[in-house]
Amino acid sequence: MTDFAQTVKQQADIVKVIEQYIRLRKAGATNYAGLCPFHKEKSPSFSVHAVRQFYHCFGCGVSGDVFSFVGKIENVSFPEAVRIVALKSGIPLPKKEYSSPEEAAEARMRRKLLDLHEAAAAWFEEQLRGPEGAVAREYLAGRGLNADGIKLFRIGYSPDSFNGLRDRLSGMADAETLRASGLFTDAETLRASGLFSSKEQGDGTMGPLYDRFRRRVMFPICSESGKVIAFTARTLETGEKAGPKYINSPETPLYSKGQVLFNLDKARTSIRQHEYALLVEGQMDCISLFLRGIQNVIATSGTAFTEHQVALLRRHTSNVAVNFDPDTAGANAAEKSIALLTAEGFTIKIITLEDGLDPDRYIRERGLEAYTKAIRGARRQADYLIERARQMFPGASAEQKVKAMNYLLPHIRRIPEKLSRDQFAHDAAQKLGIDSAVLREELRQAALKRRDHVEVKSSPLTEVERILLRALCVDDPEHVEARRMAAEALAQQPAWFESLGAFPALQALAARRAADPMEVVEDPAQRALLAEVLLHETRSPGEEEVAGALQQAQERALEKRQRELRALISEAERRGDFAELAILTQQKLEIDKALRQLHDRRPPES
Ligand SMILES: [Zn+2]
Questions:
Q1: Which end of the chain has the smaller Cβ count within 10 Å, N or C?
Q2: 524 CA distance to ligand 1 middle (Å)
Q3: Residue 496: which residues within 8 A CB-CB, separation 6 or more?
């Protein structure tokens, strides 16, 4: 590890870093638990130790330090992971930490683009307040947005100008960077869009770049950390000249449509608190709900979810309440989003609003309480789909029922857990009124036939192993004698411990004292055992406790030998081998005696 990596490892907090990827909750004095990001699971078996700064998953066995976590989850090399952790922890990177000049240039470009977007957002806000912004202010007021809401979401206005923003930003960056920002467009694109009028063409002040957004209400799109990285722009024009109702920033080095969830920066705290995310289609729906008190709301912006967005969301929750409008053009995208979320193991509920209202209108017209009630009334995805199947294929004929089943089966197949699939199939059969045993069985089989795995969690460690592992990991002076006792016994009487599952870890720890015990144990299975103990440790064991554990280990070893001798003795008796029998009997007597002495030494049970 380089000096820089060492510094980063000392200064970074693994809990804080991992929390930026997955939800963690406190599970003990020094450890946190959450759903493992490296395998699919429903109950948390992923643990992070705040003091010893490592993570371990009892489900799939991954473990390591902060760099290994970031390396795995971001799929990057060690040096890259070091850089990411440094950035996340606010530790300045030395220049040489960029792996190539290209990478350094890319980082410079991104910084520059962030600056440009920040300046653009501020300029659009300014324009909204100015005289030209009156038309946009009127529109926003009509949508029920007040000054506070406009300020919070940094909503702005792009005036009817081809060079207003360009003139403001041109001093900040060169033409190439301005072009890369996506905020501008060139004459050719303008001409192709049909929006380039001859009057504007005649304007001698225009340079080679023109403002992309004109006469539009500007909604900034932010990264998860709240930095403006793109815009959605709604037109205020009507008629042919208006162009599309909404236009977005194009893909840029900062912004990729499929990698951002609108409002996640503002919603993430509330999503964690409420343990679910409310998913809506439109950005206006999202803003409207947020400003009226539903703060765990995010928007897909009318497109289907991508796997990247699912991964983003999973860091915060695996429960989603969906409030899409089933009758819009977005219904297809909505179904695709739900399908992907289901396949990724999310629990989904569907909110349906009365009278076909969209979330924005519903909360404005009927208030927060009515909307909260609608959330509470959300149906499980299974119930929602079964209801839809019944509406689409009404009637009691076998043919209709088969059609309804075939509509449902693709949805059922996507559910990762076998039990949920079985339950879904069972509910569907009941609610669709399928009483044919053959159809029922077909439905059940179709639902069940999907590979799945069940995680069995039980500790293979005995109390003796726990005490000794803990004792060997201490490094405070107060418990140094307890550690010495355990290490000495392991070195001198290995036979006492040989049959223990954690023997290799115990031996490794006894042989080498280190600040980070997880580093000493190399075998992954052994490290898993150690991780389990460290994650559940409360305090370091004292000398008496260690002495007790050592005595028990000795006893177990003697008892095991006693059992072996018994077997050998009966074997010798059967063979009539009296010479052997005498030796074995002598050995067993010695063991019996040793065990009696050990029992006598044991303090009376309280
Ligand atoms: Zn795992």
A1: C
A2: 13
A3: 489, 550, 553, 554, 556, 557
Cα→Cα distances 102→105, 106, 337, Å: 5, 6, 36
70 C-alpha vs ligand 1 centroid, how far in Å? 14
Contact by Cβ (8 Å): 30, 38: no
- The alpha carbon of 210 and the centre of ligand 1 are apart by a number of angstroms equal to 50
Q: What is the pLDDT of residues 376-430, one digit of tens each?
A: 999 888 888 888 888 888 877 777 777 788 888 878 877 877 778 888 888 888 8
Looking at domain 3-88, what is its CATH homologous superfamily? Answer: Zinc finger, CHC2-typedomain (3.90.580.10)
What is the distance in A from the centroid of ligand 1 to the CA of 45? 7
Nearest by Cα to 263 from 311, 308, 236, 228: 228
Distance CA 134, CA 128 (A): 7
Instruction: Please give the distance, rounded to the nearest whole angstrom, from the Cα atom of residue 346 to the centre of ligand 1.
Output: 17
How far apart are the CA of 318 and the centre of ligand 1, in A? 15
- Token pair, residue 357, equals 């209202």
Query: Which fold is adopted by the domain 101-255?
Result: DNA primase DNAg catalytic core, N-terminal domain (3.90.980)
Amino acid letter, 426: H
DSSP state of 34: E
Find all residues with CB under 8 Å of 569, minimum gap 6, and list them. Answer: 581, 584, 585, 588
Q: What is the pTM of this model?
A: 0.58
8 A C-beta contact, residue 47 and residue 32: yes
The Å distance, Cα 345 to ligand 1 centre, comes to: 14
Percent of the chain with pLDDT over 90: 26
Predicted confidence (pLDDT) per residue in 122-179, tens digit = 999 999 999 999 999 999 999 999 999 999 999 999 998 888 888 888 888 887 888 8
Query: Are the C-beta atoms of 320 and 267 separated by less than 8 Å?
Result: no
Q: Ligand 1 centroid vs 41 CA: distance in angstroms?
A: 8
Output the CA 439–ligand 1 centroid distance in Å.
38
Among 29-43, 112-126, 374-388, 448-462, the range with the most confident prediction by mean pLDDT is 112-126
Residue 314 has pLDDT above 90, yes or no: no
Report which residue type is found at 114. L
DSSP 8-state secondary structure symbol assigned to residue 297? E
pLDDT score of 98 more than 90: no
Given the candidates 3.40.440.10, 3.40.640.10, 3.40.1360.10, 3.60.15.10, the CATH classification of the domain at 259-377 is: 3.40.1360.10
Please tell me the distance between residue 568's alpha carbon and the centre of ligand 1 in angstroms.
45
Phi, psi of 414 (to 5 degrees): -75, -20
Residue with tokens 């009404």: 394
Question: Distance, CA 234 to ligand 1 centroid (Å)?
Answer: 43
Ligand 1 centroid distance, CA of 50 (Å)? 18
**pLDDT at 67 > cutoff 70:** yes
Quick one: pLDDT at residue 134?
95
Task: Tokens for 290, please give them.
Answer: 């947020």
DSSP annotation of 262: B
What's the pLDDT score for residue 343? 80
Q: Where are the domains of the chain?
A: 3-88, 101-255, 259-377, 384-448, 458-606
